[in-house]
Amino acid sequence: MRKFGCLSVFGLVLILLVAEPAKSHKRPLAPLTISYASVSGTRGPLWIAKDLGLFEKHGLEVDLIYIASGGTP
Question: Per-domain residue ranges for the chain?
């Protein structure tokens, strides 16, 4: 299951790299919020895509939100 999540994130980034940028939209897209619960290498493709501006290039407004997991001390 964990491997599938990593592959799906990688697939999303790969599609954004290959796909042609959107020329125009009839209506603006709603902002997309992507949450993550750990800072690890499996979430690297999301940060790389965000830093390279791939989401904006394709007309997406993406916010990456950290959701703390586990117990609090």
Answer: 2-66
Nearest CA to 62 out of 19, 31, 30, 25 is that of 31
Write out the E strands in the chain: 32-36, 62-66
Average pLDDT of the segment spanning 2-23 = 65
Task: DSSP letter for 20, please.
Answer: P
**pTM metric for this prediction:** 0.54
Helix, strand, coil shares of the chain, percent, nearest 5, are 45, 15, 40
Q: Which helix (H) or strand (E) element contains residue 46?
A: helix 44-52
